[in-house]
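Class, study these two lines:
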Amino acid sequence: MTYVIAQPCVDVKDKACVEECPVDCIYEGERMLYIHPEECVDCGACEPVCPVEAIFYEADVPDDWAAYTVANASVFIALGSPGGASGTGPLPADAPVVAAHQ
């Protein structure tokens, strides 16, 4: 299990969660932030600092936003696990569900 960033983050990208994450596993996309499912240590530090309440434990993602669980993992398929967001820079593209969000 891991934490997931859902729809409320689209076009917000506050980044308070990035500053709070002790393992640097929150990556920036074009329109939202993503938590790397293999790098996340499930500490939960990111969840309470999110001003739009977009971060959920994977099992607690609301049904309306279930596609964001897959989206968070899918953006890392080509990237793999670089071992930290700070040395990676923004991701080249958002997940399809995010790119299509209006």
Summary: The helical segments are 16-20, 67-74, 96-99.
